[in-house]
Amino acid sequence: MKIKQIIAVAVSASMLLSLSAVPALGDEIPEGFSSMEEYYNYLVFGTKGDNTTPELDEMRLIGENDRVKMYYNESGADVFIEEKASGKVYGSEVDSEYIDTKEMSPSSVSNLVTVNYADESGDLREADFTSASAEGFSSSTEYSDNSVSVSITLIDASISFNLILSLTDDGFEANIPYESIKEEGKCRLVSLRLMPAFGAARPGENGYIFYPDGSGAVMEFADYRKTQPEFYNYSYYCNNKLTFDVYEENENLDIKSMMLPVFGIKHTSGGVFAEITGGDTDAGLHISADALYQSYFELYYRTYSTVTYNFSSKSKGEVNKLSEELTEGDRTVRYHILPDGKNTYSDMAVLYRNELISRGELKAQNKNSGVPLSVELFMGIRKNGIIGDSIQCLTSFDDAEKIINDLAENGVENADFILKGWCKGGYDTLPTCVSAESKLGGNSSLNALCRTADGLGFKIYLLADMINANSDTGSFNAQKNALRDALNTTLTDEGGTKYWLNPAIYLPDAAQKLVNSRNNGSAVCFENLGEWLVSDVGKSHATSRRDMADSIRNVLEYAKEQNGYVAVTGGNKYVCGAADRLYEIPDSDSQYYQTNLTVPFWQMVMHGFADYSSLAANLSYDFNYQKLKFVETGSIPHFVITENSPNLLQGTSYDGIFTSEYSVMKDTVIEIYREMNERLSGVWNLTLDKHEYLSDKLVRVTYSDGSAVYINYGADAAEINGVNIPAMDYVLVKGA
Question: Beta partners for 289?
Answer without folding.
Answer: 230, 293
